[in-house]
Amino acid sequence: MFTVLEPGQLTSVQDQGRRGFRAYGVTTSGAMDRLALTIANLLAGNPSTSAALEMTLRGPRLRFARPAFAAISGADMQVRLNGQPVANWSSFAIPAGAELAFEHATSGCRAYLALHGGIPVPLVMGSRSTDLRAQIGGLDGRMLRAGDDLPVPDAPLPKLALALPPEMLPRYASPGTLRVMMGPQEELFTAAGIATFLGQPYAVTHRNDRMGYVLEGPKIAHSGAPDIVSDALCPGSVQVPGSGLPIVMGSDCQTTGGYAKIATVIGPDLMRLAQSKAGDVIRFAACTDAEAVQALREERALYQHIESAVHQLRG
Amino acid sequence: MGPSCEANQWRERGADPTMPLAEPTLRMLDCGESALVVEFGSSIDPAINARVHGLARRLNQAAHAGVLETVPTYRSLMVLFDPLILHRDVLKQIIASSCAAPDESHASAAGILTLIPVAYGANFGPDLAFVAQHNGLSEEQVIALHTSTPCLVYMLGFTPGFPYLGGMNPRLATPRLESPRQSIPAGSVGIAGAQTGIYPVTSPGGWRLIGRTPLTLFHPQTQQPFLFSAGEYLQFTQISAAEFEQIHADVAAGRYTPLRRPLSQGGDRVHGA
């Protein structure tokens, strides 16, 4: 068991998401940065599907009643174990009675804490992810609070602490350019509107959460009304309501929406938005399906590479 | 606040049996590298919606490797897939040939109707009197019209299990509240514009509430989290306050089995669907 001494700004249990219920209006949820979650799990000796803690901007303080084996990844929250600094993107043993403290994110926005064996909260509809709006999954369907006790698995712990080699570390200094595939409704925008979207910088605002990111920048012109007959949304969908300002949907996005969607941020680039903060500037660049699939292939290859390296080191 | 009232903006069109079904428009639109949207039209139309659910059914039954999830909406189907398992062009071919073939699953899988018991008026539906007055009807007439015909579940969304319904008698159309209520009890049945619906979970909202069902529309802890699926039908049926309490207790104790049957039994007349 571990106890939440301070919860941080928004800390919740997340895995790779709840699949198969979008047809019923249930969002997928899951980690906003699936790359960081996956790497934390692999470093902790878990399958990539294990549940971990997702922390936002300012992390929690936790006390472990029993020994555990952990890995941290994502935003750098200057983690300390019993007061001693712990490197990000590494795994380490936690002795019984130890305090693990996260602070403000110095780079990135969301950090992940994986524990060997996962966080054994009950599966709800096939996932341990917290769906904050539907109030299901994770710990009673909500973010963590001070005083919460969370279970740790009863599993033998690995002994070998590992760190991701520097050349593999994702960089969160700036979200940079996000690749998009145009559509499904780019025809509802003028040529000038599309040129604005692809040519101008947009700023991340404080109006961002796990559902979506409202961006600030030049207005994108529709060719007609901004409303459509509601159809399906997915994480990465870029909705443009009548305001002309784009909204990029996140892991908790509602399943359907009624605004025209100019483009979709490709999955492998979405985590860079998830690691951005208010004030960060992003640009959009159109890519082909082949380029997007290649980016996904590279992401999966990285996981395989890390997994086999971890496997080899642990013998 | 609350789900958008599509039927207000997008006039529903009844199925016209004289219109030929051949050569319907079908567009496949990219939605990122892991999703495809198959669009059958641009309006809220039971015939178009039936094609959406027909394709969803066939894809779900075929269980092609790489197809992860299908999301039916009014007039299109989103297919979420793993492009490293299933190439987009192959998926498009599967969809095109699936849409060209006659839908043999239709007769058995479609047309399921779930009866939704509703206690109307009083505390259950504080706006029943307003809806009656607004439309020049008695409260009894409102209830009779609301329970008279099955409603098509075009799609689910907004909150888990929230049905976007077609088929409400247009004589019941009533504008939303000017300022939404902070908290509407789960199971509340309401009207917004030309649309009727049920709130599956307690949430804020601006619909005119005419009644409440004791059924639970969202059971996340069970094998069957939802009472009904998109593409099926609901029919409201009136119950007394005493029956509400009894069914509510039975639902809580796991003793209640919702009444589900094929649509065709009992000579259902379907309006707007």
CATH architecture of the largest domain in chain B: Beta Barrel
How many beta-strand runs of chain A?
A: 20
Percent in helix of chain B: 10-25%
* Sheet with most strands: strand arrangement of chain A: 12-19-16-17-14-13-20
CATH level-four homologous superfamily name of the largest domain in chain B: Cyclophilin-like
Output the helix-strand order of chain A.
EEHEEEEEEEEEEHEEEEEEEHEH
Major beta-sheet overview of chain A: 7 strands, mixed, barrel
Shape of chain A: globular
Helical residue percent band of chain A: 10-25%
Radius of gyration of chain B: 19 Å
In terms of structural class, how would the helical and strand content of chain B be classed?
Answer: alpha+beta
Strand % of chain B is 25-35%
Distance between the termini of chain A: 29 Å
Which segments of chain A are poorly predicted (pLDDT under 50) over 5 or more consecutive residues?
none
What are the segments of chain B in which pLDDT stays under 50 over at least 5 consecutive residues?
A: 5-23
CATH topology of the largest domain in chain B: Cyclophilin
Shape of chain B: elongated
Please outline what is shown here.
Chain A has about 325 residues and is of the alpha+beta class. Chain A is built from four helices and 20 strands.
What does this structure look like?
The complex is a heterodimer of chains A (about 325) and B (about 270). Chain A is of the alpha+beta class and about 325 residues long. Chain A has helices at about 35-45, 190-200, 265-275, 290-315; strands at about 1-5, 10-15, 50-55, 60-65, 70-75, 80, 85, 90-95, 100, 105-115, 150, 175-180, 200-210, 210-215, 225-230, 235-240, 245-250, 255-260, 260-265, 280-285. In chain A, strand 6 and strand 7 (about 85) form a beta hairpin. In chain A, helix 1 runs parallel beside helix 4 (about 290-315). The model of chain A has no long low-confidence stretch (mean pLDDT about 95). Chain B has about 270 residues and is an alpha+beta fold. Chain B folds into two domains: about 15-110, Gyrase A, domain 2 (2-Layer Sandwich), CATH 3.30.1360; about 110-260, Cyclophilin-like (Cyclophilin). Chain B has seven helices and 14 strands. Chain B has helices at about 5-10, 45-60, 90-100, 105-110, 130-135, 140-145, 240-250, and strands spanning about 25-30, 35-40, 65-70, 75-80, 110-120, 150-155, 165, 180-185, 190, 195-200, 205, 210, 235-240, 260. In chain B, the strands form three sheets. In chain B, strands 5, 6, 7, 9, 10, 12, 13 and 14 form an eight-stranded mixed β-sheet that branches. A four-stranded antiparallel β-sheet of chain B has the order 1-2-4-3, with helices on one face. In chain B, strands 8-11 form a two-stranded antiparallel sheet. The longest helix of chain B is centred in the N-terminal third of the chain and has 17 residues, at about 45-60. Classes of the chains: A alpha+beta (about 325), B alpha+beta (about 270). Chains A and B meet through strand 15, strand 19 and helix 4 of A and strand 2, strand 3 and strand 4 of B.
